[in-house]
Amino acid sequence: MAGCVLKLKKILLVDDDSTLIAMLNLILGNRKLEWEFLSVNSGDEALGILRSYDPDITILDLKMPGMDGFELVQRIRQQKLPAGKIIMLSAVDDDKIRKKALSSGILEFWTKPVAIRTLEANLSNLLG
Description:
Number of helices: 5
Mean pLDDT: 89
Number of strands: 5
Shape: globular
Distance between the termini: 21 Å
Low-confidence stretches: none
Oligomer: single chain
CATH superfamily: Response regulator
CATH topology: Rossmann fold
CATH class: Alpha Beta
CATH architecture: 3-Layer(aba) Sandwich
Number of domains: 1
């Protein structure tokens, strides 16, 4: 169709793990015609970005310097910031933390390390 503009799906990653950021850049490099990817290293940076960036998915780490993932989600909700579907990542595989995350409105809880193909498949499913 002439004049039809494809809207890229936006993904925001909030994590201080440079390995995970590099892995997502690798995955999303293959999908750059479908997905737009932005990463920040802290909760404070995420709050600033979310004022103007309206992601379809926000993937956030549980443990980060300064503000943890739970506090970030709480502030997103309090400030009514657009974050799309929120996914929490954690190196801690603990049922109590998983339940707390899911009961706080987080859509999914993924445990690190996440396999590249699994991560790409999960993102594809969530982004439709």
